[in-house]
Amino acid sequence: MDVKHKIKRVDRFLKNTHLYNERVVIYKALAHPFIDSLPMLAIVVDWSGACGQDYHLLRASLLVDVRSIVIYNMIVEQKDFDSPATNSLFLDELYEVLR
Predict the structure, then answer these.
(1) What DSSP string describes 27-90?
(2) What secondary structure letter does DSSP report for 15?
(3) Which of 17, 54, 71, 73 has its CA 20 to 30 A from that of 26?
(4) How confident is the model at residue 13, as a pLDDT?
(5) Rg of the chain on CA atoms, in Å
(6) pLDDT reported for residue 15
(7) Total domains in the fold of the chain
(8) Secondary structure of 82-95 as H, E, C letters
(9) What average pLDDT values come out for the chain (99 residues) when binned by 10 residues?
(10) What distance separates the 2 farthest-apart alpha carbons in the chain?
(11) Backbone torsions φ then ψ of 55, nearest 5 degrees
(12) Domain containing 26: what range?
């Protein structure tokens, strides 16, 4: 398969709305092996820049020994940066990942 077809496959994958709608379930499946093995959870949440100044990343990471393991990410536009609605949605979805 040539590079052009590989790029098209990745493009179709990233535009898959079903996959996007299932992101919380996917994060949950990836996070629970770590979560279930720990006696106590220490989670850090922070904002970071993403893709220039137009987008921001809200990330929750699990602290394990001296490492942080990402358990949930949300990309938001500048207009939604640090808004109460965005923060609330993030926390609701993080709760679903942890449940």
Answers:
(1) HHHHHHHHHHT-SS--EEEEEEEETTTTEEEEEEEEEETTEEEEEEEEEEEGGGTT-HHHHHHH
(2) T
(3) 54
(4) 86
(5) 16
(6) 87
(7) 1
(8) CCHHHHHHHHHHHH
(9) 90 87 93 91 91 89 91 93 93 96
(10) 48
(11) -135, 155
(12) 3-98
